[in-house]
Design goal:
By secondary structure, the chain is mainly α. 76% of the residues lie in helices and 0% in strands. The chain is elongated, with a radius of gyration of 18 Å.
């Protein structure tokens, strides 16, 4: 059995560091995706290469975020964290998986539908307006909000990451969630995504320099 050490040589420490880098990539990608995201989704936009690029970048952010959450959880548990943080992390992971399902269709399915069957996109947008998604998408948004708020606060309380990174993430999650509600201008969504992305970068960078439970 591999002995856990605080020298930075253990497998656990290396995986936490790599997960931290994934979180950095995810933070940059989510900010970039929403800064570039078109304000509307008519068929001609959904069928464009630019739409595919933006949502491919967003898919990268989701994958980076999932691996980043695993790394944050490992570091949190090394710091003595408990079930509350685990629950927050679990909710956040589930939310990203659900959102990734929709984003997958926006990258690989709806661009073709927009070209071959534009009436479908005119009626349902890029999938988020479909009746079958009417519950799942808002539910994933609530899981995202609750999960990241709870987990980020627990990371701060357990001193797993520097407090500024946790606070920026908390502020970004709240602003981003308000933006995704669709009740505010797109500028609010973009700003929320940038702040949230910055928080992920700050927390991820702290993990990328992780040296063990006494770091």
């Amino acid at each position: 059995m591999m002995e856990r050490t605080d020298t930075g040589n253990s497998l656990t420490v290396r995986l936490i560091r790599w997960g931290g880098l994934a979180n950095v990539i995810g933070g940059i990608a989510v900010a970039l995706a929403y800064v570039l995201h078109p304000p509307s989704a008519p068929p001609e936009v959904v069928g464009s290469p630019f739409w595919v690029f933006v949502h491919a970048v967003f898919l990268v952010s989701l994958l980076g975020g999932i691996f980043g959450l695993f790394a944050l959880l490992a570091a949190y548990l090394e710091k003595g964290g408990g079930l509350l943080g685990f629950a927050g992390c679990a909710m956040a992971v589930v939310s990203l998986v659900l959102i990734a399902g929709l984003d997958y269709s926006e990258v690989f399915i709806f661009p073709t539908l927009a070209k071959e069957f534009p009436a479908v996109v005119e009626k349902y947008g890029a999938g988020d307006q479909m009746p079958s998604v009417a519950f799942a998408f808002p539910a994933s948004g609530l899981l995202f909000l609750a999960g990241y708020l709870l987990f980020s606060n627990e990371l701060r309380r357990a001193v797993t990451v520097p407090a500024p990174g946790a606070w920026v993430t908390l502020a970004g999650v709240a602003a981003f969630a308000v933006g995704l509600s669709g009740q505010v201008p797109m500028l609010v969504t973009r700003a929320g995504a940038v702040v949230f992305g910055l928080g992920l970068v700050m927390m991820g960078w702290a993990l990328a320099r992780w040296h063990g439970s006494r770091a």
